[in-house]
Amino acid sequence: MKSNIKQWKQMVLIGMLAWVLLFLALFTYFMDYRVDDPNATGSMSYTETRRLTSIQGNNRVIMVSQQEAAASDPNSHSDLFNYHYVSEQAAVNLQSKPIQTRYSLETNGKNTRSRDRRTTRSSSGGIWFAAGQQQMSRDDRHTMEKLYPDEDDPEEIKQEPITRRKSRLGNSSRRREKLLDTVDDLEEYYFLKSKSVIYKLWKGNVSSKMLTPRLQKAMKDYLNANKHHVNYKGKRRTRLSGEEVLCELKSQIRVRSLDGTEAPFSSLGWDKLVPKVSINELYPLGFRSCAVVTSAGAILNSSLGKEIDSHQAVLRFNTAPTEGYEMDVGNKTTIRIINSQILANPNHRFNISTLYKDVTLVAWDPAPYTVNLHKWYKNPDYNLFTPYVEYRKKYPHQPFYILHPKFIWQLWDVIQGNTHENIQPNPPSSGFIGILIMMSLCDEVHVYEYIPSIRQTDLCHYHERYFDAACTLGAYHPLLYEKMLIQRMNTGTDKDLKKKGKVTLPGFSAITCKT
Description:
By secondary structure, the chain is an alpha/beta fold. It has 20 helices and 11 strands. The protein has 2 domains: 41-193, no CATH class; 213-510, Glycosyl transferase family 29 (sialyltransferase cstii, chain A, Alpha-Beta Complex), CATH 3.90.1480.20. The longest helix has 35 residues, at 2-36.
């Protein structure tokens, strides 16, 4: 009897032990699963958390287009760089609160990683790059193999099925942290590469071969696509000095807008629709000193607002606001250049927004290189013509111009003619166009953060929340070559360029050229 009781007690103890072991196994399993769950923010490491919170207000992320109108246009020039992970608030509200991203190129060590984290995680646990680096090229993988020779390929891990990925990573948080460190190093590699290009740009000696593989591929794709059928037959004058380039621009470039006298606009009554005074005659006395304020993210925390407002005239771009950013960008606006997307996309509220009132408006849209106005009118990149007519009828006294495509492509010809490499066969950026307009109106032009200062960042615009090195170095637009040309003509100091991101250019009226 006693032996039976003893045997029964042993069985109870064994059963209790089995239940304890089962409970511990289940507890361990669920804790490991929670560590792997990207939505379980409470278990995120400090590295992950700072990466997310610097670019988004919450842990919910969505995929949006860099330019909203481009999402619905299969022919948009944004196709190669449409998608970025950004905060939902920023996607809906393009004029969100100022982003404080104070950091400089002089920062060293691991602290540089706290600047502006540009990676986040998809709902399936994969790693996405907000800078458009969704896929690693062969060169990127080679770089990472050098950094971490014993690690699995991050691109391969990202593309594995969820179940397989969990089986590989779900049982080891240490392995997960190694992967995050690998991504951190790839991110740092891209940022440092952009930084080195900026250093070279300051010296006026940079090549597209210095860009990241992603941007090099984008440039090659645009060269092959040649959407606007560019056929440059001019000479290459790559050895011209800054003064010689200035004289070339003065002799060849004249700001020109649609005047309604050419077909098909002449048959549509545009001669009575457009302003009676041309843009060249709008300011007969000109301006002594002017500011061109780019929308670059690097202008944040610059405290340049007072200096910018001290100029007689100030030019701004697209949807760039001043309210809430006065300390850095000032609040004066004389001229605003807008691309055709601003007119065509209802989200920009072009007809009702106060952003476009009480200023001179200058719009532009890419046209064929041959400047076929009939073809352009029937098939613009974005339909700016209908909104333009409506706006002119509603506000007939406000100066509002559409730049003539011939002027746009003349600028492109000058850039290509002064560049040894073949540049993207796409129109110059709004920034370059704006600089040349102000050079025709002002004795002296001060350009802010067109060529980045030590505050350089991949934040595209100071008032928006997406990151991409292409905004600084170019993908669709030949930005890299534009900036090299502007730096060649820069008469300002190295200190102004590096500390303020300021380039100083003489206006055409102040240039004396040999005949």
